[in-house]
Design a protein that fits this description.
This protein has helices at residues 51-70, 93-97, 100-110, and strands spanning 6-16, 28-38, 80-87, 120-124, 131-137, 148-152, 162-170. By secondary structure, the protein is an alpha+beta fold. The protein has a single domain (6-186), classed as 2-Layer Sandwich (60s Ribosomal Protein L30, Chain: A), CATH 3.30.1330. Strands 1, 2, 3, 4, 5, 6 and 7 form a seven-stranded mixed beta sheet that branches. The chain is globular. The termini are far apart. This is Amino acid synthesis family protein. InterPro entries: AA_synth_put, BB2672.
């Protein structure tokens, strides 16, 4: 299995106080952790790429722990999450799909067994590209107040032979959410949906 070669890791934190309405009682925090790594499959077709998912697991745990720390250190404070991958032009979309399990399960583990599927986005792109990472509630995907996203990107990544893998966590619903649907305090927590 290829070694995960990290060029750099970056974190970003947003503190959202309002979206044009009254100031929130508690600002929403959105944070992203991004790792720019060498794509061991860039420039060629490799049939069996699944073993690289195992290699990515420690990186997933590291990024998930960094996010909890950036958000104050208490995993119970995290209410939303998502993941994504930007693949450099020498790679293919399927290389970004290798981040699904290592990124998602890492966040679930660090958060103490979150129930909901971790939403994801991925694309092949050039240096400086941006990615919208979708976010849903950590225990119930149908909690509409927590449908969100965070735009991420770095000015020098991904290079053609790289990938940028991303995890995002949030501390609550969208500021000024009022679109109805299942409320967070109505979650039954049995199936990851409701």
């Amino acid at each position: 299995m290829p070694e995960v070669r990290i060029r750099k890791i970056a974190t970003a934190l947003e503190e959202i106080r309002h979206e044009g309405g009254p100031p929130a009682v508690q600002p929403l925090l959105r944070a992203a952790a991004m790792a720019v790594i060498e794509n061991p499959f860039a420039g060629r077709y490799v049939a069996d790429i699944q073993p690289f998912m195992e290699d990515l697991k420690p990186l997933g745990l590291d990024l998930a722990r960094r996010l909890v720390a950036v958000l104050g250190g208490d995993p119970a404070r995290v209410e939303g999450y998502g993941k994504g991958a930007l693949v450099g032009s020498g790679g293919e979309l399927e290389h970004g799909a290798l981040w699904h399990a290592p990124g998602g399960y890492a966040m679930r583990e660090v958060l103490g067994g979150a129930m909901a599927i971790v939403p994801s986005s991925k694309k092949v792109a050039g240096v400086g590209a941006r990615l919208d990472v979708p976010v849903t509630h950590v225990n119930a995907s149908y909690v509409r107040s927590h449908f969100d996203s965070m735009e991420v990107g770095l000015n020098d990544a991904p290079r053609a032979d790289e990938m940028m893998v991303v995890l995002v966590m949030t501390t609550g619903p969208r500021v000024h959410n009022r679109a109805g649907g299942l409320a967070a305090d109505q979650i039954t927590g049995k199936d990851g949906l409701r």
